[in-house]
């Protein structure tokens, strides 16, 4: 998916589905990954794309930013990424390309949101369950040929607002004893999702909101109901559940991507908080899907 630059001249967003009857330069459009690779973004309005690979598809996005700095990122499920429209997409998957690319025109937003949208990181990758769920629904409607202009604009509105509110904020520094605000919690959640495979320390999270580790642990538990360590563990389990639903990744890789040090540790923690082992969870999900 891609997002266009925010200008006063833009009219209200309309949605473009890649079909034979519609022009390629209006509003928001949804493309299967294979179509996006063929298109190469040459007909897209300037702006950004949201890349949402599924299955085993790994997308390499490369290009520069407005300051001339080169960027190169690898995107694979269950992550998604916001990249400039003109970034070059490549993959090692050959013709087996699964996922979605969405180009979004910002005129669907109000002026305040348009200004906030400018603060969205242009080369960012995150695990965002809401976005993936929205895109899965959008893809299912696309496949069934059930999207009209009103439906498309509704998706544009929801996706735009979500990204602006979650990633486009400009939060200030916190005083030592300030309770965590929603913006602070969002900043912490984004950091955890971006570094879920790594060892995340309380001190790292505290720095994000300009607090000491001890004060942060206290206010974080007051805000979420869980201490930071348990919260991160539950996010790892949630992340692993998302990957297990993809069906294709080996269990050992799922555990590693979710930040568990060993396969046994992954199995023990996953069972503790879900009541089943990772293998049993995957088999149950397959049975439900069939």
Number of domains: 3
SSE pattern: EEEHEEEEEEHEHHHHHHHHH
The biggest beta sheet reads: 5 strands, mixed
C-alpha geometry: globular
Terminal residue distance:
29 Å
Give the averaged pLDDT, no decimals. Answer: 76
Care to describe what's here?
The protein has 290 residues and is α+β, with helices and mostly antiparallel strands. The protein has three domains: 2-167, Jelly Rolls (Sandwich); 182-225; 231-289, Arc Repressor Mutant, subunit A, CATH 1.10.10.60. The protein has helices spanning 33-39, 111-117, 129-143, 149-167, 182-194, 202-208, 213-224, 228-244, 251-257, 263-274, 278-289, and strands at residues 2-4, 15-17, 28-32, 47-53, 58-64, 70-76, 80-84, 88-91, 99-103, 124-126. A hairpin with a 5-residue loop joins β5 and β6. The longest helix has 19 residues, at 149-167. It starts with a strand and ends with a helix.
Could you outline the blueprint of secondary structure elements for this entry?
Elements (H helix, E strand, L loop, with lengths): L1 E3 L10 E3 L10 E5 H7 L7 E7 L4 E7 L5 E7 L3 E5 L3 E4 L7 E5 L7 H7 L6 E3 L2 H15 L5 H19 L14 H13 L7 H7 L4 H12 L3 H17 L6 H7 L5 H12 L3 H12 L1
Parallel strand pairs: 2-3
Antiparallel strand pairs: 1-4, 3-9, 4-9, 5-6, 5-8, 7-10
Helix pairs in contact: 2-4, 6-7, 8-10
Task: Write out key terms for the chains shown.
290 residues; alpha+beta; Jelly Rolls; Arc Repressor Mutant, subunit A; 3 domains; five-stranded mixed β-sheet; three-stranded antiparallel β-sheet; 11 helices; disordered N terminus
